[in-house]
Every structure is written in C-alpha cells, then in structure tokens.
Amino acid sequence: MVEDDISVSLLNTEILTRSGYEVDAAKDGAAAWDALNVDSYDLMITDNSMPRMTGLELLKKLRAARMEMPVIMATGVLPTQEFTRSPWLRPTATLVKPYTVGELLRTVKKVLREAESTDGEPKNCYPG
User: Fold this and answer.
1) pTM
2) Is the distance from CB of 57 to CB of 30 less than 8 angstroms?
3) CA 40 – CA 35 distance, rounded (Å)
4) pLDDT greater than 90 at residue 71
5) Contact assessment for residue 43 and residue 72, using Cβ atoms and an 8 Å cutoff
6) Cα dist from 81 to 6, 89, 90, 93, 108, whole Å
7) Any alpha helices (H) in the chain, and if so which ranges?
8) Are the C-beta atoms of residues 86 and 59 closer than 8 Å to each other?
9) pLDDT exceeds cutoff 60 at 120
C-alpha cells in the first residue's frame, strides 16, 4: 500500500489485513521503490499525488525495471493523459477516491485472480 495520507493508508491496510491479506505500507513512491528492491510483492496499490516520488513515477520505474507485478492506482485524479501517451504505463486497475471498502476489496480480488490465471501460481496480496 503506497499512500502518503496516513489515515487512508491505515484504513486500507486494516481493511486488507482483516480480509486475510498480508500488507506492507509505504509513505510515498520513494519508500515503496526501496521496498521493491528488497522484497518481492504480488500486488501494489498506489496513490499518484505523493511527495518525493509520485505513483506515476513509481510505475515508470517499475516498468523500466521489468518488475512483473499488477498495480492498482487508487488516487483522486488519474493521470489519463500520461496513460494515453504511454499505454505501457497503464495500471492493471484503477480506483478513484473516494472509493468504498467493497470497491477496494472487489478490485484487489479481481486483479489477483487475473494475475493467478496468467501464471498459474496462487497469489497473496502484498501491496508494495
């Protein structure tokens, strides 16, 4: 879970943990990038507007490093122009704030199910 708003981060982490997922939280894209270079994760949920490194910048680094991981961009304003100019940057799924607990859980479940069906391995949710 990559989110600079501590209340959103804590709430989403608690929701996902109570739903049976293991969750790591990062306060911005730079902290998430550091974690991605130490551990492996099955899923990243990221905000876009964050200090030090935006979600879009994090997504660019992830794609450039060829890290295969589904990404849910959960943000107030999606960078749709950037996704149009660079389709390879598009996240696996998006959530626009404010979203509901149900929307979050349905999106996570769907993305992980799709990831599992493409590689045949069971997945846990370890948002980056």
Assistant:
1) 0.89
2) no
3) 8
4) yes
5) yes
6) 28, 11, 11, 16, 24
7) 6-18, 29-36, 55-64, 80-85, 101-119
8) no
9) no
